[in-house]
Amino acid sequence: MPYRLPPLKSLRLFEAAARHLSFKQAAEELAITPSAVSHGIRVLEDWLGAPLFDRTQRTLVLTDAGKAYLPEVQGALDRLAAASDAVQKRGGGGALSISVAPTFGARWLAHHLPDFQARHPGIAVTLDSTQRQIAFPRDGIDLAIRMGFGDWPELDVTCLAVEELVPVCAPALAPAIRTADDLRDQTLLQVSSVAEDWTAWAALAGVGEDAFDLETGPRFDNIGMALDAAAEGMGLAIGRRPLIDPDLAAGRLVAVLGPPHPARTGYWLLAAPGAMARPELSIFRDWLRKTLDAQPGAAATQEPV
Fold it and tell me: Comparing 94-162+265-293 with 163-262, is the CATH topology the same?
């Protein structure tokens, strides 16, 4: 007897919209339009003969039918994803899909990935640098690299490296920065997403906040732009190791007023529970840790306190 199944694409749309309680956020996650999400869910509701969302509210709300349906759909999608992964594993597929924090991906991983590919040519790596919460395994992502405090209790979590803070600037500017007092005469570059970096570094280094002025100076919306501006001589930025290690090695940036000071944050490798049993995942994890450990002054594997 053939299965009587709803449209499978609509199930994926429903799961994402129900998880976010937003057609817009579901659309961003799935790289389609909100109207396509809404239409797909209408198709599913028509097939079921029951509404899944209450659209009369200002915010999206699940109906009782939707609340009951959601965990069943999520469980079914999880089982399909896990079964597909198992088939790929048995078939010898050596593919890795990795979600990586954009700045870490651009400033560190991209510089070192050729080494991994040279060592493991049979493992095909796909990188996804969009900032979004990963739902293992239904998102099709094997591993995620994130900055944070390691508080992902439902996942397999590995500390890759503790972040270290140190001021950095262009080589031509470095001779003018001998002591913290020299900061008063310099432009300090700030990043809105980590606005506390200068004060955090000052506290770690025992430097009084009256040693510099944070009221003026350019502000950037991501760390990478601030580091690029510093390399061009615009001013000083707070560098985060290991992000800045390729720039330091290439001489684009120089660390001043060191040594670097360990921060409370680090970079972490996240995976679904039990996923590390796949050889290609454990190979990539071990390569990451070994490569980070090998860097001069690296604080890899030492968890933040």
Answer: yes
